[in-house]
């Protein structure tokens, strides 16, 4: 094929273009009515009480950490197989990050190892945990909640891969990622490779009113205009805490609202593409795919295969104009994290996974023909 097939990309149609054009012609480019509309609709989509729109997924993680008073002297736990931002946002607040290795079959943080780490540490060692719904497969936040309650930890769920994903909990409830039922806060990204594109954009969801109010304030410099004495004048406001400018403009929200309306359809298409890959690679001994426990419904941001000759396959696919990707280089192996003391060998399952993983193209606009071409190219490489 002459057309390049990326691993992920946005789907923009006429209604998206119309929505943004309309916003451009309105009275507001930023901080108009579309911010609240996007927040309300997103909260409804994931089933949370509150949602706070912000500049990007990384800002969402940073704001979430700030709202929970993450600070120097604290230790936070996350997984090595995630985008660096999950850990970086904790470092922004001065906290230290520790990792728990992944389960080699689901690629998610290993909950047995997490429990072991907590049980063998002095009480109060850790302040919180940042589990990641990697590829769109939900982490079992019900299990993590039990540990969090026992060890007095908060949970910031990095759900950037997982809008629309869910699992069934022990009492039969459908727990959507971001619903705030077990996590204190959940963070989402609207980067173009993610499910919903805003250009740049992010969202934090929660069911906690106090956290919600603090997030709103932190998002705009820590300034409050609420309950100000009238005699101080109509302009009066106070900067009460140290915040940031992490707002999401109306322009981006216009695109987000329009994209969100199609998110359900896009999710169905993602599931279909993942099912096609799963079927095509079933029973092939040279290919390992992520285990999908049956009570978990993946939102399929990424479809990953593990193969022994990963680099050769990556290069081969590139000659065919298929631009696969690798998610992720283990966070602890980046030079910055190595400078903090982490080293190769610290998390063997994450490192083994990294040596073999490859992300294949998956996005709603990928055609049946293109997917067949990708599948056949992988099989051709394996001489099958
Ligand atoms: C995309 C992503 C982020 C960061 O989102 P941005 O919007 O790019 O800042 C954080 N964590 C994970 C797991 C992501 O995939």
Descriptive notes:
- The longest helix is centred in the C-terminal third of the chain and has 19 residues, at 263-281.
- Strands 1-9-8-5-4-2-3 form a seven-stranded mixed beta sheet, with helices on both faces. Strands 7-6-13 form a three-stranded antiparallel beta sheet, with no helix packed on it.
- The protein has two domains: 6-260, Aspartate Aminotransferase, domain 2 (3-Layer(aba) Sandwich); 263-381, Aspartate Aminotransferase, domain 1, CATH 3.90.1150.10.
- Strand 4 (128-130), helix 6 and strand 5 form a beta-alpha-beta unit.
- It has helices at 14-24, 33-46, 57-67, 85-92, 111-119, 141-151, 209-219, 250-260, 263-281, 310-319, 335-339, 348-356, 368-381; strands spanning 50-54, 75-78, 96-99, 128-130, 154-158, 166-168, 174-176, 185-189, 202-206, 223-224, 238-239, 288-289, 296-297, 303-306, 357-360.
- With 384 residues, the protein is an alpha/beta fold.
- Helix 1 (14-24) runs antiparallel to helix 8 and helix 2 (33-46) runs parallel beside helix 8.
- The mean pLDDT is 97.
- The structure holds pyridoxal-5'-phosphate.
- Residues 56-58, 82-83, 85-86, 132, 158, 160-161, 189, 191, 202 line the site of pyridoxal-5'-phosphate.
């Amino acid at each position: 094929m002459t057309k390049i097939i990326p691993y992920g990309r946005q789907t923009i149609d006429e209604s998206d273009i119309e929505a943004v054009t309309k916003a451009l012609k309105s009275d507001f480019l930023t901080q108009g009515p579309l911010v609240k509309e996007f927040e309300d609709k997103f909260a409804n989509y994931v089933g949370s009480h509150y949602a706070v729109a912000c500049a990007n997924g990384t800002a969402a993680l940073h704001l979430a950490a700030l709202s929970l008073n993450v600070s120097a002297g604290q230790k936070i736990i996350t997984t090595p197989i995630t985008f660096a931002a999950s850990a970086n946002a904790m470092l922004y607040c001065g906290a230290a990050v520790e990792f728990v290795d992944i389960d080699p079959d689901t690629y998610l943080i290993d909950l047995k190892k997490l429990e072991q780490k907590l049980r063998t540490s002095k009480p109060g060692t850790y302040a919180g945990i940042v589990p990641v719904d990697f590829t769109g497969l939900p982490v079992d936040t019900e299990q993590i909640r039990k540990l969090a309650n026992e060890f007095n930890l908060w949970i910031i769920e990095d759900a950037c891969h997982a809008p629309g994903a869910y699992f069934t909990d022990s009492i039969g409830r459908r727990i959507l990622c971001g619903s705030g039922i077990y996590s204190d806060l959940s963070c989402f990204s609207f980067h173009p490779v993610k499910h919903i594109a805003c250009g740049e954009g992010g969202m934090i969801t929660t069911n906690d009113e106090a956290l919600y109010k603090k997030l709103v304030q932190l998002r705009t410099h820590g300034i409050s205009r609420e309950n100000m004495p009238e005699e101080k004048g109509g302009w009066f406001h106070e900067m009460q805490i140290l915040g940031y400018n992490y707002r999401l403009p109306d322009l981006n929200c216009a695109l987000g609202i329009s994209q969100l309306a199609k998110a359900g359809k896009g999710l169905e298409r993602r599931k279909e593409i993942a099912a096609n890959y799963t079927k095509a690679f079933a029973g092939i001994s040279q290919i390992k795919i992520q285990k999908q426990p049956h009570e978990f419904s993946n939102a399929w941001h990424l479809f990953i295969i593990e193969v022994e000759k990963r680099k050769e396959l990556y290069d081969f696919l590139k000659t065919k104009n298929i631009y696969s990707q690798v998610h992720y280089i283990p966070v602890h192996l980046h030079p910055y994290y190595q400078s903090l003391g982490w080293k190769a060998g610290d998390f063997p399952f994450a490192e083994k996974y990294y040596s073999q993983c490859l992300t294949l193209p998956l996005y709603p606009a990928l055609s049946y023909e293109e997917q067949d071409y990708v599948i056949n190219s992988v099989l051709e490489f394996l001489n099958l």
